[in-house]
Amino acid sequence: MKRRATFLLAVTAAVTMAVGGCGIPDETPVLTVEAGPTPGPGTGDAAAPPRNNRQDTSDRATFVKYFLEAAAGDPDGAVDRVKQFLSPTAQTSFKPSASVTVIRLTEEPLVNQGSDEITFGAQEIGQLAHNGILSPTTDDTVKHYSLTVKEVSGENGLFVTKTPQVMLISDTALQQFYERRTIYFWNTEHTALVPDVRYLALSVPPEQRPTVVLNWLVEGPAAWLQDVAEELPDGTTLIGNVPAVDNGRLQINLSDQAVPANDRAALDRLRRQLMWSLRPDLPRTLELKVGHQAGGSWSSADYLASNASYRLSSDPERFVLYAGKINRLALSADAGQPVPVLESDANKNVAAAAFAGSENRTYAAVVTGSGGSQQLRVAGARAGEQAELQRVTMPAGSIGQPVWAVTPEEGPEGAVGLVTVGGRIYGFTARGGAAHLVEWPGPGGSVTAVAVAPDARRVAMIVSGHLYVTTLLTGADTPQLGTQPVRVPTPPMPTITALDWSSEGWVVVAGTRADNKRVAVMDTTVDGAQQSMRLPDLGSEAISYLSAYPASPTGPETSGSVAYVAGSRAYDVLADPSHIGVDDLAKPVSDPPSGVQPTKPFFLR
Amino acid sequence: MPVRRTLRVVRRHWRVLARRTSRAVAPARREWRRSLQLRVVALTLVASSLLVGAFGWFVAAQSANILLNRAQDEVYAQLRGKVDYAYSQLGIFPSPYDTKLPGTLSTTLNYLADGEPAENGGAIVSMRAERWPTLEPVTSTGTDISALITPDMVHAVATEGRVARQIRTATVGGLTAKYLVYGSPVATKFGHVELYYMVPLTTEDRAANQIRTMVLVTGLALVILLGVVAGLVTRLVVTPVRVAARTAQRLSAGLLDQRMKVDGEDDLALLASAFNQMASNLQRQIVRLEEMSRLQRRFTSDVSHELRTPLTTVRMAADLIFAERDEFEPAVARSAELLQAELDRFESLLTDLLEISRFDAGFAALDAEHTDLVPIVERVADRLAGLAERVGVRIELHLPDQPVIAEVDPRRVERVLRNLVGNAVEHGEHKPVEVTMASDGAAVAITVRDHGVGLKSGEELLVFNRFWRADPSRARQTGGTGLGLSISVEDARLHGGWLEAWGMPGEGAQFRLTLPVRAGDRLVAAPLPLVPRDRHAVVEPEPGDGPATLPAGSTAAALPPGAGDDPADAGPADAGRADAGPADAGPAEAGPAEAPAADGVMEVRR
Q: What is the per-residue pLDDT for A213?
């Protein structure tokens, strides 16, 4: 029995040992599974402009120029880049605010031999925040900045030893190191996208640009647009980065909150918003993931229609007043058609007129009479139909150019009109009736002109000769102006006399130049960061009226269809002013009376 | 030298150890040899253990493999997803010094680790960039995982850019577990960073252990079950066989009415009934033979007794005639002398027959007393001196100087010696007869050596048969009855001693009487060799011509009382005797002589 027990024990031990050796091993050597992925080719950042460093020059004037470029670019490294120009002691005391101040030099930096101090005068254009929003500065006075630039012993090159506690970039650096990007938010009625202009550093690699834009969208619209532009739903975030375009496909992953569950309309809006905002970077296909669910992928260009600017015709219908009547111009679309909306007997004694069209309706506002007996009459009709003009009652005064803002409402309520009367803005509808005073919340007094942006949610106006942009709220009984009007400085033209929207990001203005007191037509961005003379010298006769048909966002930045009235003559803005004469009317006028010229050209918007 | 000494010590220890081991396992070996059941069960256990062990090993190993492969596939699939995601996230950085890269690394890691259990024991994701030291490694759990990612792994992934895997056992966050570590490079525009995905194999390990335990327990149970089944089956067969063996032993011990129990009609029942039939036949034959033997002995005894009375009368008459022979004619006188002589022979023949029949009837009793054997030998020599002188044979005595005291029956011993010496003188061929005596304290041996014609091969057994003659035609000179050696054997057996013969044709013969010093003691060896010393060299290699060991009577005397009932013990007892026997006896008698027969059948076994 003893032997048997021993034997059993041995067998058990053997079995245990045998079985014990066959579990999951404690350690194994490193086993190759497969060859790893090969790194993709670097795209390089050819688009990024070359950056000038501190040691690149010993010329003080150039040094200052370079210094005023240092902060431009990726906002995350701005402070470090500026500090590279500073001496070690200045570095420690340099504590600027997060935003970058954009200035426009009014004079070349003054370098005095024998002195380390360099001074220059500049106007402040605005503050460029990290989210690419350039907030214009209302104060357009010239400030003087002074820098101390000298050599530091033991180090090569020049250093800034004393500097204002701000990060400065020049307007040229802004043009050179940034790209203007328009991102879009839906208006509160979800009928059209509201553009929001941002500045994207060119040093951001192309692959990262969608990520940057998405983060801007998540952060929400600029402050002055907030009451008309709808933010993305609360809690929306970008999950991870937006991957580089792969096989013509851009994949975006947003958090669950971006789209309410099963809301296809919201998803469609979101993708249109994204596609518009990412349009310069958009490959063939956009693929959207919401949370962990596939939202969808879109390849068609149908999103373009969501932007009202894009909906504008490339060949606008043009009109002109001639002998108190509205006439079509020969070189325009539908030149042979009758004048819309107005019955032919109503087309008389017209002093100013505006047409606006929505999808299936056309609205007309006509100012008749002259002097103290001016009246505003309005009508709205289905496209191709006529309607009787209704009178709008309003306080007496000089009635300005009426404008329409098309709203999403159907029928006669589908458009809101604005008109200046005696320096104040009144709102009216296509049904006529009493006009309502629209309060101007900003400073200054007399509003002399108003223009509605293609998106119908932004207006530009001239208040006391200055350019302002603000938002227009049409939802309530009476239209209202946004409470945060932004004054856009136009330094080349301290006073402007006429304006209209040149495109969704640009306004074309007319006024007298500060430097040579000549009348000029100029384009300015809505934030005033960039201005370019279109017609620099039109003599001395002031421009009283200016009308433009905004350019499509897919085309050039500024409109090619601008017309103005100087004196009593109307001109088209081409490379040079081109007079609009009787010959240009669609219906030839036989035996035109002398001295009567076509005037106040306008467009069907 | 020390090596040799050490070797010697080692060898000695080894020998001691081997001896102890063999002594320790001796009972087990004995049990192994004896028990068929043990052997069957043990062999079944070994075979089934091997079989079940191999099968269990295979099952457990395969299960562990399957578990591991599944885990590997799963983890690899997840890793690919993670690498793809990391690639998409990091692919937008053309430079490793991008200020947003560290942030992206950690958000990517958070995303990758999202959904992994965050507590200890969960999967760990780690991203590092060996080539870009400015990029800090990031780990999802924040614990130190340097034990999991080996330099080999880093080399394979970071330097050679391969996807690799490894199993590591490590303590992470206070929890020791096996981890499946996968590493893969993540391609970026500036080279690659590395993604490591470490998944604890706790579940798989536990499952593998459970399978192993299950297989082990099942296997053990199976083996034990098989052993039990084998034991039961063997027992089914062995028990009747044992019963048969025991019955056979009892039968052979004389219990002739022992029978086996017959159950059922199977093969074992057949065996039992055949066995019983055999036993019945044997019993019948034995009883018949015993009866015949008894009748024969009775007849001899009766005849002897019945002859004595007329013989006495004839004797008296013959004595009278013999006394008056001188008065008769010479021819008649000669007849009277012949009558007298033949009557003497007849009388001694009758005496011997009666003695024999007393032995046969079992009436012979040993009248043992402490006796000095030397005077007995001398007396026998004296008595035969006349005869010796007559035939011209010299009797030489080689006796110890001091008395040899043994507990014997002097009358019977003297009779044996007289018989032996008388035979030797008779067949001495005028050559001296040597009588030698020696004692070793336990036994006394007396050899009687003659140099006569000797014995032919096989005759050394026959000499003890009743009425046996070497040459039937040879004239009887001494007038022996032909029963002397038979009676001598019976006398020796009565003492518990041996009487053995050796002879070679032409070289004479030697008889050896060995007696225990104390009556009833068991003989193990004789102090004198059976084969004469002058013959050793010649005889030794020829077993066929070798001397006959005749322990016939002695064997029965040597057996302890009742030992014949249990033949199982006979083996070791014989072995003991065999070991001690050849100490100073001739090698020819080294083979133990066994004569288990109770009826005096003699047999020599080498």
A: 92
* Cross-chain residue pair B88–A246, CB shorter than 8 Å: yes
What band does A3 get if pLDDT is binned at 50, 70 and 90?
low
User: DSSP assignment, residue B439?
Assistant: E
Cβ separation A37–B76 shorter than 8 A: no
Residues of chain B contacting residue A74, judged by C-beta atoms under 8 Å apart:
99
Q: Do A198 and A215 form a contact (C-beta atoms < 8 A)?
A: no
Q: Which of B57, B89, B92 to mutate to test the interface with A (most CBs of A within 10 A)?
A: B92
Touching check for A261 and chain B: CB below 8 Å?
no
Q: Does A256 touch chain B (CB under 8 A)?
A: no
Chain A residue whose CA is closest to B177: A26
Interface test with A, best of B35, B109, B165, B189 (most A CBs within 10 A): B189
Give B168's contacts in chain A (Cβ within 8 Å): 27
- Residues B66-82, mean pLDDT to the nearest whole number: 91
ipTM for the complex shown: 0.77
The reply to whether A291 touches chain B by the CB within 8 Å rule is: no
Average pLDDT over residues B228-238: 88
State residue A15's pLDDT score. 57
d(C-alpha A245, C-alpha A342), whole Å: 52
Q: Which residues of B445-460 are buried (b: 16+ CB within 10 A; e: fewer)?
A: bbbbbbbbbbbeeebb
**What pLDDT digit, counting tens, does each position of A453-500 carry?**
988 889 999 999 999 999 998 876 788 888 888 888 888 888 899 999
Examine the pLDDT at A80 and tell me if it is beyond 70: yes
Measured between alpha carbons, how far is A340 from A352 in angstroms, rounded to an integer? 15
Which SS3 state, helix, strand or coil, does residue A174 take? helix
Contacts of B180 (CB under 8 A, 6+ apart): B71, B72, B75, B165, B166, B167, B198, B199, B200, B201
| A contact residues 99-128, partner B, Cβ 8 Å cutoff | none
- Residue % of chain A over a pLDDT of 90: 16
The pLDDT assigned to A221 comes to: 92
Instruction: Return the number of CB contacts < 8 Å for A and B.
Output: 175
DSSP three-state, residue A16? helix
Which domains are present in chain A? 57-177 (3.10.450), 183-195+202-308 (no CATH), 309-603 (2.120.10.30)
pTM of the model: 0.67
Residue of chain A whose alpha carbon sits nearest to that of B159: A36
Q: Closest by alpha carbon to B128, among B102, B110, B93, B107?
A: B102
On whether the CB atoms of residues A220 and A543 are closer than 8 A, the answer is: no
- Across the interface, whether the CB atoms of A207 and B157 are under 8 A apart is answered no
DSSP H or E stretch at residue A419: strand A415-421
Rounded CA separation A24/B199 (Å): 14
Q: Nearest CB to A241: which of B104, B156, B190?
A: B104
- What residues contact A261, with CB distance under 8 A and at least 6 apart? none
Query: Shortest Cα distance from A458 to chain B (angstroms)?
Result: 35
CB contact under 8 A, B212 and A22: yes
Query: Count of residues for chain B?
Result: 606
Considering only alpha carbons, which residue of chain B is nearest residue A28? B167
As a whole number of angstroms, the distance between CA B40 and CA B44 comes to 6
pLDDT tier at B8, thresholds 50, 70, 90: very high
Across the interface, do A35 and B161 touch by the CB < 8 Å criterion? yes
Q: What gap in Å lies between CA A481 and CA A469, rounded to an integer?
A: 10
What's residue A522's pLDDT?
A: 92
Q: Is the pLDDT of residue B571 over 80?
A: no
Instruction: Find, among B252, B357, B102, the residue nearest to B568 by Cα.
Output: B252
pLDDT higher than threshold 60 for residue A64: yes
Confirm or reject contact between A46 and chain B (CB < 8 A): no
